[in-house]
């Protein structure tokens, strides 16, 4: 899959088209791009705009779709196939070529208006406004400042224009909703041979979603690592926004300091700081030299540094929940939705109020302005804040798979392995399973393992379904229940894959690191045939444990979280209870957080090569730990770096060479936020928690008791198990817009019902929280 867009050349005009012209226009040719000449730089890259003629297939596609949309909006007679004769006056289409000259990326834009239009869906409301003689208000995203997702949903529901979605369409979404495994199937996990796709003319190239590439590079790239604050947040995600002025509720301490919101847009801002002119000496090769040789020496020439410094930061356009007000805030004012829990005293204050205080009328809620100065009085803010909290809680229950694509392949006869290998593999996994089960209680920390039949397609372990003495047919059934029916040799099969998903408050993409729910120690604590045992504590941690009289075994990687780099999101079909079922699965390589100074007891000495940078872009472990195990190699190549690991740790892959893990989505806790604990909005909370933990260490108390209600923070960076800070979405929705609307309606129903019942109770019963 590539981030490069390619446009189809198969779009043609319909038979007997009816051409129409848009008479009115706000187009201006002076707004067309000027860089229309193809010039390759020294790296062989190009960056120019190519004018697109009307008879080019992509232009035909736009003209046909726009003609149909205008016809629907203007109620033109049904029957003819309407096509735009030409673009509105002053408009023209351009193809943006960017990247390697031999295979650049292509992005289509329509220029001429106040803003450039990137898609048909963006231009539909604007051209309808032009067709109405520009007498009404334009409904496009650039004129209304509304998110495109909402606009596309509205024009689709109105029957004006329905785009061809990259994501799951309504029909398939309804199938997923009816057969959602999150409601019908338990946890599943399996280890199998990693799928390695090879170049083939039988495989259709699928373009990567542009938003996915941008979101991943904003966190997993060298440039992102240089940012003061990374662009953690993505359009449509729920977040917390720090208020300009906290809203006092009671006294000087009980305050509303952050408000839940939805990200609507991300903007890169550059700040130029004037500096004093300084002369800096840098090494430059002599002018008469071409390529410097090994024998040549660089000459030192004084170069005047620029008298300014450019700092890049991000700003987010956010819509506050409940009040529907839109603000633009700095990146330093935003926190992930799972990074903050309102203080207990705020909840206590709200619960102590009479139900008569609350007003959930829409006009009343929208009258509240949390960012005003002076801040609003608590009677007008508490209703909106309570409503916003409930919307966020409702939104966390929703999920959705996005940007689907069909993967087609023809299975080949697997390479037959010697019978001795299969027997020894079965024995090894069964022995590891028995040993792990003896060390950890069944159902909570043990994982039964099962080896499927000798077809060679599956090597799995599962939380349920395996028992000693399974027949070949029973083992095959277990494997097919995990990964779907075994493929038929020579028969082409299709599998529905996805590039991303909405998971509660968060937007998750393939190729990124996610946190899993289990503690690392739960997964193969003694290791299995294909899973390494957890790394032990480093030297510094070991010495500290000895000083405190504690066992070092409790403080290695097993005490921290478990990670997966998502490599695939896909749909499997199986049979459960005699009926066909469907379930979404995720697969990828697993990682743990190992101490930088941990020494691998099985390290390879001699000529073993150093681990690839793709294993970890975080802190590099000491030389003693950089040599991988003889049977452990870097995970599958990804175009993105791994995000930075927390300070003092590095990401260590724990699966043996050539294997990946397949899991149910229910095992995913959420996104990983590198460096989030250093955010200034969390500074006081983190310092307080660290102080309590240090005090507990000195007093010999348990670590879990010391961290208290702040354990969820450590989980965001993988320093604690993922289940400590996770969501369990169970309700599938068509798209993100529908999620937000349903969350609002659900909140209204819940609060209306609660307030109606509360007003019927005696006051003393209402105040009795123990009976609530």
From TrEMBL:
Give the matching InterPro entries: Clr2, Clr2_N, Tscrpt-silencing_Clr2_C
Positions of the UniProt region annotated as Disordered: 281-302, 601-627
Provide one Gene Ontology biological process annotation.
Answer: silent mating-type cassette heterochromatin formation
Biased-composition ranges, Polar residues, are 606-627
**Pfam families in UniProt:** Clr2, Clr2_transil
| Residue intervals of the Cryptic loci regulator 2 N-terminal domain | 82-143
Q: Which domain of life is it from?
A: Eukaryota
Q: Which GO cellular component terms are attached?
A: mating-type region heterochromatin; rDNA heterochromatin; SHREC complex
Residue ranges of every copy of the Cryptic loci regulator 2 C-terminal domain listed in the record: 498-674
- What is the name of the protein in this document? Cryptic loci regulator 2 N-terminal domain-containing protein
């Amino acid at each position: 899959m590539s981030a490069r867009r390619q446009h189809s050349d198969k779009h043609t005009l319909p038979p007997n088209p009816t051409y129409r012209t848009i008479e009115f226009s706000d187009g201006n040719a002076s707004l067309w791009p000027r860089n229309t000449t193809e010039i390759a730089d020294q790296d062989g890259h190009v960056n120019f705009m190519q004018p697109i003629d009307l008879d080019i297939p992509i232009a035909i596609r736009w003209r046909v779709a726009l003609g149909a949309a205008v016809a629907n909006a203007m109620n033109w007679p049904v029957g003819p196939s309407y096509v735009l004769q030409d673009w509105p006056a002053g408009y023209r289409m351009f193809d943006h070529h960017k990247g390697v000259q031999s295979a650049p990326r292509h992005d289509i834009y329509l220029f001429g208006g106040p803003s450039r239009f990137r898609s048909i869906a963006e231009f539909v409301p604007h051209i309808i406004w032009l067709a109405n003689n520009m007498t009404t208000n334009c409904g496009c995203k650039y004129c209304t400042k509304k998110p495109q997702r909402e606009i596309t949903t509205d024009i689709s529901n109105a029957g004006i224009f329905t785009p061809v979605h990259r994501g799951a369409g309504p029909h398939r979404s309804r199938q997923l909703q009816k057969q959602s495994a999150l409601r019908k199937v338990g946890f599943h996990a399996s280890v199998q041979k990693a799928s390695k796709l090879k170049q083939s003319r039988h495989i259709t190239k699928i373009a990567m979603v542009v938003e996915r590439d941008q979101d991943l590079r904003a966190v997993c790239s060298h440039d992102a690592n240089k940012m003061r604050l990374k662009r953690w947040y993505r359009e449509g995600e729920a977040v917390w926004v720090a208020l300009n002025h906290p809203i006092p509720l009671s006294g000087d301490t009980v305050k509303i300091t952050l408000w839940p919101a939805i990200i609507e847009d991300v903007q890169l801002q550059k700040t130029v700081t004037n500096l004093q002119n300084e002369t800096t000496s840098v090494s430059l090769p002599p002018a008469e030299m071409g390529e410097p040789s090994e024998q040549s020496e660089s000459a030192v020439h004084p170069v005047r540094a620029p008298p300014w410094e450019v700092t890049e930061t991000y700003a987010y356009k956010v819509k506050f929940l409940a009040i529907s007000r839109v603000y633009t805030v700095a990146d330093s004012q935003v926190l992930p939705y799972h990074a903050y829990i309102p203080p207990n005293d705020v909840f206590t204050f709200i619960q102590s109020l009479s139900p008569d205080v609350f007003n959930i009328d829409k006009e009343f809620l929208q009258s509240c302005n949390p960012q005003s100065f002076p801040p609003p009085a608590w009677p007008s803010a508490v209703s909106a804040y309570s409503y916003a909290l409930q919307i966020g809680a409702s939104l966390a229950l929703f999920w959705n798979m996005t940007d689907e694509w069909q993967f087609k392949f023809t299975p080949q006869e697997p390479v037959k392995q010697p019978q001795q290998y299969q027997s020894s593999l079965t024995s090894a996994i069964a022995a590891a399973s028995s040993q792990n089960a003896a060390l950890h209680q069944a159902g909570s920390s043990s994982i039964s393992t099962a080896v499927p039949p000798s077809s060679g397609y599956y090597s799995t372990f599962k939380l349920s379904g395996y028992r000693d003495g399974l027949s070949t047919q029973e083992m095959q059934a277990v494997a097919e229940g995990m990964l779907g029916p075994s493929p038929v040799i020579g028969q082409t099969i299709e599998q529905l894959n996805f590039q991303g998903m909405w998971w509660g408050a968060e937007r998750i993409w393939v190729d990124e690191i996610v946190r899993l729910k289990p503690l690392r120690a739960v997964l193969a604590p003694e290791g299995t045939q294909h899973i390494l045992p957890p790394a032990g504590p480093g030297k510094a941690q070991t010495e500290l444990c000895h000083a405190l009289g504690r066992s070092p075994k409790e403080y290695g990687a097993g005490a921290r979280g478990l990670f997966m780099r998502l490599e695939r999101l896909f749909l499997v079909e199986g049979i459960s209870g005699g009926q066909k079922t469907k379930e979404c699965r995720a697969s990828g390589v697993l990682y743990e957080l190992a101490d930088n100074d941990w020494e691998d007891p099985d390290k390879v000495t001699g000529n073993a090569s150093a681990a690839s940078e793709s294993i970890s872009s975080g802190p590099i472990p000491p030389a003693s730990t950089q040599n991988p195990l003889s049977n452990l190699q870097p995970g599958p190549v990804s175009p993105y770096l791994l995000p930075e690991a927390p300070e003092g740790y590095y990401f260590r892959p724990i699966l043996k060479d050539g294997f990946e893990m397949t899991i149910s989505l229910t095992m995913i806790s959420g996104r990983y936020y590198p460096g989030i604990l250093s955010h200034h909005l969390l500074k006081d909370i983190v310092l307080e928690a660290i102080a309590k933990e240090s005090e507990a260490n000195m007093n010999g108390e348990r670590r879990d008791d010391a961290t208290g209600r702040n354990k969820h923070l450590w989980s965001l960076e993988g320093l604690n198990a993922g289940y400590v800070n996770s969501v369990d979405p169970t309700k599938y929705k068509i798209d993100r817009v529908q999620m937000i609307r349903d969350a609002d309606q659900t909140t209204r129903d819940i609060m209306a019902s609660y307030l109606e019942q509360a007003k019927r109770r005696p006051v003393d019963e209402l105040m009795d929280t123990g009976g609530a």
